[in-house]
Amino acid sequence: MKMESSDKVKYVLWFAQEHVNFRAADIESVASIFNIEVNYHTEISDVPYCIVELPSEKEAHLLASRCISLRSVLELWGHGKTNEELHNSIQQTPKDRMYPHFVSEKSFRLTVETFCKSLSMKEKVERIESFSYLPIEGNVNLKDPDVTFYLLEYFGQDSNNIPEQPYELFFGRWVADGQRSLIQKLSLKTRHFLGNTSMDAQLSLLMANQAKIVPGSLVYDPFVGSGSLLVSAAQFGGYVSGADIDFLMIHGKSRPVRPNQKVREKGESIKSNMQQYNLSSKYVGVLVADFARPLWRPDVRFDAILTDPPYGVREATFKVGSWRGPDIKPIAEKHLPHHIPAKVDYDLQELMRDLLDFAANHLCMGGRLVFWLPICREEYDEEKSLPKHKCLRLIYNCEQVLSCHSSRLLLCMEKVKEPVTKEKTPPAELTSTTRFRHRYFGGKEQKE
Amino acid sequence: MKLLTHNMLSSRCIKGVSVGYPLKISAKNVRLVNCDFDTDFTVRIIQKLDWNALWEAAESVGHADDIPKNLSDIDDYDKNDEFLRKVHHVVLEVEVIEGELECPETGRKFPIEDGVPNMLLNEDEV
Predict the structure, then answer these.
(1) Fold of A10-179
(2) Which residues form a coiled coil (chain B) (predicted)?
(3) Which of B4, B38, B124 sits opposite A284 (nearest CB)?
(4) With contact defined as beta carbons under 8 Å apart, do A360 and A392 qualify?
(5) Which of A45, A48, A84, A145 has the most neighbouring CB atoms within 10 Å?
């Protein structure tokens, strides 16, 4: 992040206070998609506001057109630690930037928004009246104004110790809203076809942004399940495909997961989800396949790989094989048509190694692999716990805390070079993934 | 299974198969679906396609008339709207619903059911 100060137009990135760890990656990825130079005046942190400098308002609209973590973007007209500082700073803002929005033809609204404190109507009106020195000529229109001004007051995040006066105040003009509405649009509550571990709409959208999916990207999910990651990728214009070892899941015949639903409806499938959101044109297809075996023509290149591999906790990790080992009797001819292949455990370390090898081979140069990795929080060590590949560079590592002892990390890697040999890299010794399942269910006692 | 998927798919999963491409299609049921046409995507995907495999696949499902046998027969294909629409039609709108894929080296067959190819091997084959 670059920090500079100048007289250029500043904007407030106003974030929704959810998945705080993911917001920096979200903004940076979207900025990178549109090639936007963002100068950060304050760092992106757990505070829901960040002041940035953008080349023009067009860039603010572009950022808002894709960012999921963003609530709104405001053009910053005043900022301070106290009321006095705020009003001083408003008076120093160039008039030619503010006054065009004060003309009589434009109806307006001034909204007071507080963080971690609620104000009475009287207090709000007092605050609004403190702006009476601004020569606003337009009429008030609360429902559908031409221009909206915001006063944002930040009272910290400790709801047990709310201060009398805010820590920070911002004043500005509303420019654009982020894409929070997509979270409702793609919500799992109304999704036609669901699996046990379908990824929540917000996280899938954040993943699609980190993967830098743009209209026309070719996207693949090797552990597709119910296809929830494909929905968000297709929403942003990606052409999506996926594979899974679970025949019943792919064919929409697995046990239903909604309460009170005894059998799956006819036609429930990944394809029907695409139809639900009017994204059928982006659907390439799904396959039943074993990730432990090669599947694609060697020169196939995807623009992005998005996946939530099974960790053996809520979904089992399997590959085709027999516990009897390699020397098993061939399956008799008469059984072949209806034979269901036997499966053995697919070790998580081996799976991660295969996933990174696969991405190194099948991503376009500069393409991104975005995937989840479960960790035990106590044992986590950034150096030792993360899988590595010499052709992939780690771009983001965002933690979602699941319980006091476990988390999952959303890792984003970019392909930086073409692999030379076709040899498999040895399975990484990852402290985090070693028997994650065992640790997860074993709790503290069994750890010795 | 759309022909775009088929164009990328191999049977390298089988032991001892190093190329396993292209897979032969024997289709019992082919359906046409509607997909919005996107010029940029179609131009980009042509660069990723194995043209011979696409033509053979199109022939095996009865759509060979739609596209030329050799891509080099078309000059400046990225500006030829009519041609691009045909390619779009063949790769995204022709879907094999029931049928089989066959490994060109071993003859191992993979069934396609309800539009989904099943590429799983049995435990005695891995």
Answers:
(1) VC0802-like (3.30.2130)
(2) none
(3) B4
(4) yes
(5) A48
- Find the mean pLDDT for residues B74-98: 93
Residue B11: pLDDT band by 50, 70, 90 thresholds? very high
Its ipTM equals 0.96
Residues of A in contact with B88 (CB under 8 A): none
Across the interface, do B120 and A247 touch by the CB < 8 Å criterion?
A: yes
End-to-end Cα distance, chain B = 24
* B32 close contact with A: CB closer than 8 A: no
- Say if the Cβ atoms of B120 and A289 lie within 8 Å: yes
DSSP-derived pairing of the beta strands A108-115 and A147-154: parallel
Q: Which among B8, B54, B94, B119 is the top mutation candidate for probing chain A, defined by the most A β-carbons within 10 Å of its own β-carbon? A: B8
Q: Is B120 on the interface with A (CB under 8 A)?
A: yes
Give the minimum alpha-carbon distance from A424 to chain B in angstroms, rounded to a whole number. 15
Rg (alpha carbons) of chain B, rounded to whole number: 15
Domain positions in chain B: 6-117
Query: Which CATH architecture does the domain made up of A183-447 adopt?
Result: 3-Layer(aba) Sandwich (3.40)
| Percent of chain B whose predicted confidence (pLDDT) is above 70 | 100
* Distance, C-alpha A228 to centroid of its chain: 13
Query: What was the pLDDT predicted at A113?
Result: 97
In a mutagenesis test of the B interface, which of A266, A295, A327, A339 is the best target, namely the one with the most B β-carbons within 10 Å? A295
Q: For residues A423 and A353, give the distance between their C-alpha atoms in angstroms, rounded to a whole number.
A: 12
SS (H, E, C) A396-414: EEEEEECCCCEEEEEEEEE
Give which of A48, A237, A311, A84 is closest to B41, Cα–Cα: A237
Amino acid identity of residue B112, one-letter, is I
Residue A241, classed as helix, strand or coil, is: strand
For B96, nearest residue in chain A (alpha carbons): A285
- Domain spans, chain A: 10-179, 183-447
Residue to test with chain A: of B95, B97, B122, B125, most A Cβ within 10 A: B122
Radius of gyration of chain A (CA): 26
Place of tokens 């399940």: A225
**Which residue's entry shows tokens 């201060």?**
A163
Q: Give the right CATH number for B6-117 from 3.30.1370.10, 2.160.10.10, 2.40.30.170, 2.20.25.10.
A: 2.20.25.10
Asked if residue B12 lies in contact with residue B110, where contact means CB atoms within 8 angstroms, the answer is no
Are the Cβ atoms of B40 and A321 closer than 8 angstroms? no
Contact B117 A287 (CB under 8 A): yes
